Sequence to fold (409 residues):
Amino acid sequence: MAESIGAPEGIIDDFDVRAFVLDRLASEELDGARVCVIVPDATRSCPLPLLLGAVHEALHGRAAAVTVLIALGTHAPMSEEQLAKHLGGPYEGFDIRNHEWWLPETLVSLGEISAERVAQLSEGRMRQAIDVTLNRAVVEHDVCLVIGPVFPHEVVGFSGGNKYFFPGIAGQEIIDFSHWLGALISSAEIIGTRGITPVRALIDEAAAMIPARRLALCLVVESGRGALHAASFGAPEDAWAACADVSAQTHVRYLDAPVRRVVSIIPEKYDDMWTGAKGFYKVEPIVADGGEVIIYAPHITRISAMHPEIEQLGYHCRDYFVKQWDRFSDQHWGVLAHSTHLRGAGTWDPVAGERPRVTVTLATGIPESVVRGANLDYLDPRAVDLDALAADPSTFVVPQAGEILFRLR
Fold:
């Protein structure tokens, strides 16, 4: 069982957070151990300077070696300046690294999940063997300690726990595989789903193959600020489950009726549409059929530096790909998944073509030709009057969009 502190309606004092981390790590057999600490990148709200400061106090001079590994998934690497701001420090004796997912020599295969087992875990949606490839750190350290928040998530239901291994520090093949499984279920259906979803089941199965002992400090973070509502420490499965229960109460807001238009104001921690698209995922459930989501982010000037192919592929609903699979099966499935997540629900057939449920409009710094070329609508951000939109009874404006999920009662 995981040990937990906090509650959905409260905020934990920093002193109590530090004491909790110190106490939990003191209770673990870490003397002389090589410890890999896996943490999120800057796209997640998380008080890492507070937490890593406590981890450093608990492990420096006690553990034989400590590596802090940034769980990028397939995001862009963080610079030394960005890391210093994100992590705090300095942390004497700690080796801080980005997960270099694009370098095959940094990865190791842990084995294979069979096609038959994949079919069971995916509830029949997929049936092919998958190579479980992960950052080499998992075989070079005795203990892997995950530190990261739990939020409603478009691929897995609720993020956190073993998700910091897959996709956090995984190879691209299994990242693409798990994301496409989530896309087959659809973002609108899986996001904020409690319990073990098919994607979570696949992730847990893969994580069980890690040779190092796995621990997790899971967190429920106040969105946009970084204060903690709750924290749980233990096996990743247990700590995650405890925090997912709290996140379901803290990070989900309910509306009584659908709205015609939503304006999602994207915070600057999302610096491209690959990450800023969370401003769509979290509001899609409350938009009326035929409605519109405006992604307002003047600071975003590109769709994705790490996945430029999305500009040629464009954004399309799930059926567009599934019903033309012979055209798209050789694309990176993670890119296809991102495409469907931002395009949202819809239909496609060879006669009527594509019919999205809602309109997605980008009011960003991305050039109009790129936006329209990617099959989205364009709005000049200079023409957006946020005050007027907020006063419009048919419009719902979401500040700091991307972490709070909105649903209908």
Summary: The mean pLDDT is 97. The two ends are 32 Å apart (CA to CA). The domain at 253-408 is CATH 3.90.226.30 (2-enoyl-CoA Hydratase; Chain A, domain 1).
